[in-house]
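Exercise 7.
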Amino acid sequence: MFTRMDEGSTEEWLEIRELTLASQRQVADRIIPMLEWLRHSVDGYAVDQLTHSLQTAARAEADGADDELVITALCHDIGKFVSTANHASMSAEVLAPYVRPELYQLIQHHQVFQGAAYNHHFGWDPDAREAYRDEPWFDLAVTFADDWDQMSFDPDYPTPPLAHFEERLRAVFAEPRITK
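Solution. The predicted structure, written as tokens, is:
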């Protein structure tokens, strides 16, 4: 095996490719514990962040969203596993190889859209999302923020367990797309 990438033979690179593709089938096995960890993050909300994520996905599902959008809703705050401050960007990058571009953009900007509900409390612009008005994903981002995400902190909401979404999560994370 080589010790520098520029010294790898075609045979070695083909072997690495095969091993990498095989390990791809385990991505969901790494995503699930990240989601489960969100159970430990409450930060003053009425429910933990896993419950919030499950409720967001359940609301998307109830509104007839396709599987890719439901799983995007489920994973929209997965970046909080690392940092709340940059969680939208981190969540979007985790999802990027697995979801269509408008869903990536939706998650990348979901905090801006959600700000319509709370920005005024901090003296920030509650209409900041208007900067994206001409984007093709704008209406979906409004639905996501207003109807699913910001509504999903309810301890009395009938919240399905993570297992309810597991088969679809595995399907979405099974095959990455080339994104860049």
